[in-house]
Amino acid sequence: MTRLSERPWKTLSSTPIYRNRWLALREDLVELPDGRTTIYGVVTCGECVGILPFLDPETVLLIRQYRYVAGRMTWEMPTGGVHAGESLEEAAQRELAEEIGYRAGRLTSISTYHTSKSVLDETAHLFLGEGMERLALPPDETEFIEVRAFPFAEVLRMVLAGEILDSMTIIAVLLAARRRDGGR
Known about the structure:
This protein is an alpha+beta fold. It has two domains: about 5-45, no CATH class; about 45-180, Nucleoside Triphosphate Pyrophosphohydrolase. The chain has three helices and nine strands. It has helices spanning about 90-100, 150-160, 165-180; strands at about 10-20, 25-30, 35-55, 60-65, 70-75, 80, 100-115, 120-135, 145-150. Strands 1, 2, 3, 4, 5, 6, 7, 8 and 9 form a nine-stranded mixed β-sheet that branches. It is globular, with a radius of gyration of 19 Å. The mean pLDDT is about 95.
């Protein structure tokens, strides 16, 4: 017998509330496993990518930018949304080019996860970028970004000290550190 906690919720209706090019908000009427109904709000952002770019085995590039919602400057790896019709690898390469002016000679997928498990429908795909090649591209006019090379050990220290708060960067750095220590 399936326990109530294992039964999926049933969507009875879905009402779009708001949409722009980055996200959509909808309100669903759902039936719970015990038969009761409730309203559930869902924000959909789709898929995104994050790339931890290694210039060499000991050096990574991070970007610093103002994040409006956080209300502060943050250090993080290049990240961004996946455009319609774009593969994850194409999105990763585009984000690298736009944000740091590089292309990865090799992308290694290290994780796919849900950025929030409750009200946000967003799936993040994380990569390590290696064999970085500098591109001769003008910077994206919509990006106000500082790019800086850091020793990987310093970035790991920043994550462990709570100086880097971006979940995509934290997860990528911790997984990269584990790989470096031989844990696959």
